[in-house]
UniProtKB/TrEMBL annotation:
Protein name: UDP-glucuronosyltransferase
Catalytic activities: glucuronate acceptor + UDP-alpha-D-glucuronate = acceptor beta-D-glucuronoside + UDP + H(+)
The protein's enzyme class: transferase
Signal peptide: 1-22
Subcellular location: Membrane
Recorded topology in the membrane: Single-pass membrane protein
PROSITE patterns referenced in this protein's UniProt entry, alphabetically: UDPGT
Coiled-coil intervals: none
Alphabetical UniProt keywords: Glycosyltransferase, Membrane, Signal, Transferase, Transmembrane, Transmembrane helix
Lineage, uppermost ranks: Eukaryota, Metazoa, Ecdysozoa, Arthropoda, Hexapoda
Domain of life, per lineage: Eukaryota
InterPro entries: UDP-glycosyltransferase (IPR050271), UDP_glucos_trans (IPR002213), UDP_glycos_trans_CS (IPR035595)
CC per GO annotation: membrane
Length: 521
């Protein structure tokens, strides 16, 4: 604690020397999901490290005061909507939880967002606080944009996944569905004809729902929880559309080396990997021993923080253990319960310092659920993967790893153990997977600034330039009919139809006259 405050004082002095101003920042990360908590915590950490004062809306309230400049707003009530047990892998496998259903996802995210805005802790904060900038996690509803209106300050969106049409909608316009799939779809370019048709159809339908169905839900919540607050504070009440499209910037948890190279507006910034520590923390003694115990290498297996290995069906668990038993490598399996019948070369750990394991030179393979944090960490350290995607963007991440050539992809079916064995044998037996992982790692690391410096630079830029209006895409103000030339298309179509109609009419009258002649004759 003492050491921490000392570090902080030295840091603040250094910042004074460099002349960066300290801001009051509101960080909005209300989703009760562990990986989102990791992203929120690390964002807040970097902002605090830069000397700012941060108010953090989080469902993971920590009793112990963690930093003199941090104030937490507790929204743990959001755990009533989703929590660690929502993602039972058996329910996902049986199709009972279908997170590819946009209506279900919207419902969940909308409930969390409206609950957050209604939360008495949040309401009190809106009443009493002032901020220079709001950083809000985008989760498929736009409601958190209203914090920026309440505080009359710029808004920075934070996007947890690779750039997709919904987030780009808010600062520029949807991406091209000819090469950019919805984040939940198992599609990576190049698309087939069918893929393109399906993406176009899906994105047009969803776009319609966004503006005609979901929109009214959001306006309802805005009128209920925000408008009274604006009135109380004497702030003129803007239209909801003015609020939601007013974001200055998107900070995206993405990196081009592990996503697609696509054209993005100047106010989208890649900051993927910012949650990864600069220095690798040393492994605990027992794990260090295991990591060095086998000259054939170590395999690390973890399904991430939302999905639990213990929820896998028993036959699959046993099948996987059988596969591991036959390997000459040693396996570290992050598993939430004690497995009595684990073979000698399998070590079960309840918790694992994933980054430190991935950093170890003896690690030869990472078997992962393909979450973006795990994928980013694996490329950070240049380790090949076998992915078992379960939901959300994991299918796309896993498929991209396969297409880029640093991994294989296994579906979560009763056949998993057999498929897993094939995929693992392939990746372990073929050095090209590891060498692609190393090459991508090099491309990923070779950049001018670290992701955390990128965050602080752009937040500073947005505050200094009062919302960075010069970075805003000119396309955002264009209605769709102008953007896609639908008006021009309509004129061409109408003209063509008119000409065809006129020619047909003329033709008919000419032929009917001559027909008439024959009849009278
Ligand atoms: C829009 O953003 C600017 C700065 O970026 C802010 O000053 C203004 O209050 C915002 N307007 C609304 C309606 O949120």
């Amino acid at each position: 604690m003492k050491m921490d405050s000392l570090k902080w004082i030295i840091f603040s002095c250094l910042l004074c020397l460099y002349g960066t101003e300290a801001y009051k920042i509101l960080a909005v990360f209300p989703l009760p999901s562990k990986s989102h908590g990791i992203l929120g915590d690390n964002m807040v950490k970097h902002l605090l490290d830069a000397g700012h004062e941060v108010t953090y809306i989080t469902p993971y309230y920590k009793e112990t005061k963690t930093h003199p400049n941090l104030k937490q707003i507790d929204v743990s009530a959001n755990k009533e909507v989703i929590n660690e047990n929502t993602m039972d892998i058996k329910l996902v496998m049986a199709g009972i939880i279908n997170l590819e259903d946009p209506d279900l996802v919207f419902d969940m995210m909308f409930t969390i967002a409206s609950k957050t805005l209604e939360n008495p802790n949040v309401q009190e904060m809106m009443r009493n606080q002032k901020f220079d900038v709001v950083v809000a996690e985008y989760m498929f509803v736009d409601l958190y944009s209203s914090f920026a209106t309440v505080f009359q300050c710029p808004l920075v969106w934070f996007s947890t996944v690779n750039p997709h049409w919904m987030i780009m909608n808010l600062i520029d316009g949807p991406l091209n569905p000819a090469y950019n799939a919805d984040y939940t779809h198992n599609r990576v370019t190049p698309f087939t004809f069918y893929d393109r048709v399906m993406e176009l159809w899906h994105q047009v339908v969803e776009q319609y729902k966004l503006t005609h169905k979901y929109y009214y839900h959001e306006v309802g919540a805005y009128e209920k929880s925000i408008v009274p607050m604006l009135k109380e504070k004497g702030i003129p009440v803007p239209e909801y559309n003015e609020v939601r499209y007013n974001g200055s910037l998107v900070l995206g948890n993405s990196q081009v080396a592990i996503s697609d190279a696509i054209a993005l507006p100047p106010n989208y910034k890649h900051i993927g990997g910012y949650h990864i520590d600069d220095e690798v923390k040393p492994l605990p003694e027992n794990l260090k021993k295991i990591m060095e115990s086998n000259k054939n290498g170590i395999i690390y297996f973890s399904l991430g923080s939302n999905i639990k290995s213990k929820d896998l069906p028993v036959e699959i668990k046993e099948g996987i253990l059988d596969v591991f038993k036959g390997l000459k490598q040693t396996v570290i399996w992050k598993f939430e319960e004690v497995l009595a019948n684990a073979p000698k070369n399998v070590h079960i750990v309840q918790w694992a310092p994933q980054q430190s394991i991935l950093a170890h030179p003896n690690l030869v393979l990472f078997v992962t659920h393909g979450g973006l944090l795990s994928i980013t960490e694996t490329i950070h350290h240049g380790v090949p993967v076998v992915s078992i995607p379960v939901f959300a963007d994991q299918f796309q991440n896993a498929k991209r790893a396969e297409i880029q050539g640093y991994g294989r992809n296994v579906r979560l079916t009763p056949n998993l153990p057999k498929d897993l064995k094939k995929a693992m044998d392939d990746v372990l037996g073929n050095p090209s997977y590891a060498s692609v992982a190393k090459e991508l790692s090099k491309a990923y690391h070779h950049r001018q600034t670290k992701p955390k410096d990128e965050i602080n630079f752009w937040i500073d830029h947005v505050v200094q330039t009062r919302g960075a209006p010069h970075l805003r895409s000119v396309a955002i103000s264009l209605p769709y009919y102008q953007r896609y030339f639908l008006d021009v298309l309509a004129i061409i179509l109408i003209s063509l139809l008119t000409i065809i109609y006129a020619v047909a009419k003329l033709w008919c009258s000419l032929t009917s006259k001559s027909n008439g002649k024959y009849k009278t004759n």
